[in-house]
Amino acid sequence: MKIKKFPYYPGCTLKQTAKNFEKSAMGTANYLGIELKELPRWNCCGAVFSLTSDDVMHQVAAIRNLIRVQEMNDSGMLDNEYHLVVLCSMCFNVLKRANIFVTKDAETLFKINEFMDEEPDYEGTVEITHFLEILRDFMGFEKIKEKVVQSLYGLKVSAYYGCTLLRPREIGIDDPEAPTIMEELIASLGATPIDNHYKSLCCGSYHTVGKDKDIVARRTYKIIEGARENGADIIITSCPLCAFNLDNRQKLSKKIYPDFQYMPVLYFTQLMALAFGKEEEAGFEGNYIDPYPVLEKRDLIHNLKVR
Amino acid sequence: MQIDEKNVNFLKKVEELSGEKITLCEQCGICTTSCPMVDEMDFTPAGIMRAVQIGDETIIESKAIWVCASCFSCTVRCPRGIDLSKVTEALRQLTLRKNVDHIDLKEVKKEKLPAIAVVSALRKFTG
Fold first, then answer.
1. pLDDT tens readout for residues B59-114
2. ipTM value of the model?
3. For range B13-18, the mean pLDDT
4. What pLDDT score was predicted for residue A153?
């Protein structure tokens, strides 16, 4: 099988609370014949896109990373591949919007290149691509279906999109009002996609820091109850901040709503690792709510050697 | 209330900073019905828009502009094509650019948080 190489931007959180996201993504990508080559000397993208019209300064961090993609191609590390693959939804949003912001007119691009005079000029050639888009558009879900060695038949999975993967419309990877990309992935793995009215309702994001955590806990309750009412066993997501809020903040939701019941929250790549028979690369040890009871119930972890 | 030059200047300032034409808003309220945070707010998103239209500067003291977490739900639905997330960002920046922070780091409990949570909170709440 020919290995296809893509430049890859991890972002801070994939080296920290979302190690299981990176581990499972790397494992599944390799299995599918994709090599994600980490950018050398990457830096934090800023996590949120600066929304004021006069702010070019805060685009610098994001754009520096795109220059690294040019360098990788120039040095022969990549074969003319300018699709930068991102896993974290927030980084995806920031990099894609910053790319549009600085390339929308020659003056802004000139300004940012002048400011970064210690760097080679950014030429505006990089395309920001989410790993889910690689699965849909480069691989195709039919091909993914063929790669499944352990069907997830019987498992009821609800996709949680959050905000930054879909909105605003011009950068979203799918229809912002009726996305289907994760449901298609779930179905291709043999599991049953479960709809949730709240699948793109904001989880409260950075309110998880500081004194307003309850804002997050109330939204976590709503989102998880929405999935449960429709019969879901687990939730999958692609955002490490949503994952933290939906997973770790369930404890706080339970405090506010005593009737609340815990539900495991996985990265979509962890689900893929399971279906590809790579449980040891799923990184379930990094999840706060233990997913094993529900996976055991659906008879899905009999291949697992270590627990 | 009588709209005077001060009110007009506030409207102009917010329009410039956000890059959005706020007078286009016709108060249909789709932003309010789309907002996942509205039950935590003291002003509705449409209410914020109205306050800026009439140049009511006190809106920058509202809780609502800080509760908005830029989820872009209103942005994708506004029939007038206004990006309200840019408007609330501009309103927050009017305070933050005076070097007045909205978060007291002493209140942040010691726990392992995702890096993107900390970075985004600092980006949104500090100048």
1. 999 999 999 999 999 999 999 999 999 999 999 999 999 999 999 888 888 899 99
2. 0.96
3. 98
4. 94
Q: How many CA atoms within 13 Å lie on the side-chain side of A67? A: 21
- Burial state string for A88-97 with b = 16 or more CB within 10 A and e = fewer than 16: bbbbbbbbbb
Distance CA A50, CA B90 (A): 10
Chain A CB within 8 Å of residue B16 CB: yes
**What is the per-residue pLDDT for A298?**
87
Residue A306: the pLDDT is 45
Q: Output Rg (C-alpha) for chain B, integer angstroms.
A: 15
For chain B, the domain total comes to 1
A108 lies in some domain: yes
- Is A51's CB within 8 Å of B117's CB? no
Q: Is the pTM above the cut of 0.95?
A: yes
Residues 58-117 of B with CB under 8 A from A: 67, 69-73, 75-76, 83, 85-86, 89-90, 93, 103-104, 107-108, 112-117
Query: What pLDDT does A302 receive?
Result: 63
Residue type, A134: I
Is A307 within the bounds of a domain? no
Q: Is residue A304 included in any domain, yes or no?
A: no
Sequence-distant (6+) residues with CB within 8 A of A44 are A11, A12, A61, B115, B119
Q: How close does chain A come to B115, measured CA to CA in Å?
A: 5
Task: Show residues of chain A in contact with B81, CB under 8 Å.
Answer: none
Q: By residue range, what is the domain housing residue B76?
A: 5-125
- Residue B58 is part of a domain; what is its CATH number? 1.10.1060
For residues A145 and A288, state if they share a domain: yes
* Cβ atoms of residues A31 and A107 within 8 Å: no
Q: Using an 8 Å Cβ cutoff, are A295 and A257 in contact?
A: no
Q: In which domain, by residue range, is A85 found?
A: 4-131
Segments in chain A below pLDDT 70? 1, 302-307
